[in-house]
Design goal:
Length: about 775
Amino acid sequence: MTPKRTPTPTAGIAAAALAIAGTLAVTGTAAAGPTDAGRHHPAGGPTFDRTATYPVFQNRPAGEDPATETVAEISAVSPDGRTLVYTDAAARRIGFLDIARPDRPRGLGTLSLAQLGDAEDEPTSVAVLGRYVLVVVNTSASYTAPSGRLDVIELATRQRVRSIDLGGQPDSIAISHDQRYAAIAIENERDEDATPPGRKKGDLPQAPAGFVQILDLDGRSTPQRWKLRTVPLTAADGQALPALAAAGITEPTDPEPEYVSINGRNQLAVTLQENNGVVLVDVPTGRVTGAFSAGTASVGGIDTVKDGRIELTGSITDVPREPDAVAWVDDRYLATANEGDWRGGTRGWSVFDSRTGQVAWDAGNTFERLAVRHGLHNEDRAAKKGTEPEGVAIAEYGGVRYAFVGSERSNFVAVYDLSRPTAPVFRQVLPTTNGPEGLLPIPSRGLLAVSSETDDADAGVRASVSLYRLGGGTPDFPSLVSADDAQGAPIGWGALGALSAAPGRPQQLYSVTDAAYTPTRILTVDAGRSPAVVTDSLPVTDADGNPAAYDAEGIFARPQGGFWLAVEGAKGAENRLVRLDAAGRTRQTVPLPAEVAAGLGKQGFEGVAASTDRHGREIVWAVLQREVSTDPAGVARIGRYDVTAGTWSWFSYRLESTAVAGDWIGLSEVTVVGNRLAIIERDKLNGPAAALKRVYTVPMPAGPAAPGPLAVLPKTLAVDVLPALRATNGWTQEKLEGLTVAGNGQVYAITDNDGVQDATGETVLLRLGPAAKVFGRR
């Protein structure tokens, strides 16, 4: 048996249409498109705020290894909006969650498809109709022998009441508004390793062709009376249907339907992602009423080179949209998420007029720029399909129609006001866990559920279902965004593992990018706004004025001007302090003493600060993240560097422990608070496993360390930051790495998002309160 490849399904919302589409060229911000500039929170009106993030590995069967891959792809909800059902193709099952309390979802267990068929059966999509759960299942033995079935499960008992042969490999399912019909896309997907005669590897056509199945639900009567009808998308002899050929579908003899959506007039829209097209079907009659190409787009002002730089100066030309998800806006217009497959992907989403097949609106570069502005840009995907918008859903809340568009690679959902179908207005960004796949509006309860398909137990970032509620107030996310640069593009940022106050500017902070990006840049942050705003970016250069690529883990803005950086090295000897002038140019490099450097592994310098001693001399304080191999276990070092004398001395810091296998504890930051040093101590854990994210203080040594064994500085707990990180109701971030006291007396802390690699990508900037309250008065 050829192993089955998990398709990328998604469940639909609504549908109508026909015609022939053209090409929209978009350079910079799309004409008639939404501007994201300055739009960090909507001006007035309700917003969505995250209420909970539920890791689905916690819903696993008893006795299963917690590290076993388990995902949540497509989800559906019971009629009362209180029970969520999700597909888990990785573990070959469906899961159930109690979401009666949106702030406290509860696992209700799973149903293994192995109990209903074969251990290799994969659920690809799910829908709920009254008391029944409809699960479409891929049972294919190979790409050339595709097969599948529809299992009808009673929600209350989880017993299968009927199984229907679908005649091919299914992808998505949608139920009509009047609940009279269900439509199922039978993709019969291509084998990316196969080479058709006269074509390239992975090319089309690859028989057998896909089609659509319509299930007549017979007024919601017993499932035994439901009847299946086939809607072929090719002629009986395998040739192209005239409507598809005339529309310019890429390979109309192999349509490969992906996603289905039904509108209020029972018109079905079906995306043909690999074929860059949309087919329209009259559901009651099963007649193909039209088809159109999704066309191509030329988009400028985006990042198209994987080089560690966030540079919005690239462009793509005449690229097929290749839409994945589709959703009806109303009975005339439909929206597509233009993820792309093998030839395309335009990094945005579009609204089409079903009557003409023409593009009525296109996001252009604005969707990708949302990722950049919110620190969620995945530079690793720059040369490919960027943000990869995969999911789209439309729903009405309180009389306002919203569009939700999910970014598979940058881990967010963008929310738009679609009161005018051809003029979407961006409202907000919702952070998700990795690979948001299923977007499920639950308007009856004012909720949105997002299920994610990426599960990485090694990195500790697990697939989840996130819940958001529409309401008043300011949402927790974002806590930091960027302003536009001189060219009108959002300043790129991410991987901020350090903070410093800005001398003489009470509301201003500095941060610095680490090795996730190159060249190193110092970012200016206006913390007096909410959310805080990155307002400027200063490139760092070496002594010769060339761009520098430092793994900067700490920053201190000197009252004398310029900066100190704590630069971590891949090897001990590569760790150093670097002094910059105000223009960001390297003026001094201070290596570690050889005996200290020799005892370090990959973890070295993590934080830096400076003070002035009683003689007026500048003293630099730096922390090493982990133990030096020659020191006792469980002890990290604090370094004191006398700038005038050019000498180091060292003190010890006793680390806590979590007793979690594979975990380690380290230091992440140091900052001066009066006559004390405030230090971040954290574990390596994230999500529900996170246990230690704290700030301690130690007395600042008045002079160099005495000869002999290193003195252990007594520490006092100042604040446990873990509750504040958990209060965002998201995936608890691992890397609490930046801490400072601003000139306004407020204490700020920040998490490092690792450049959206092996992390959710979310950055949390915390205002911990006045220093006098956090650290006490002395």
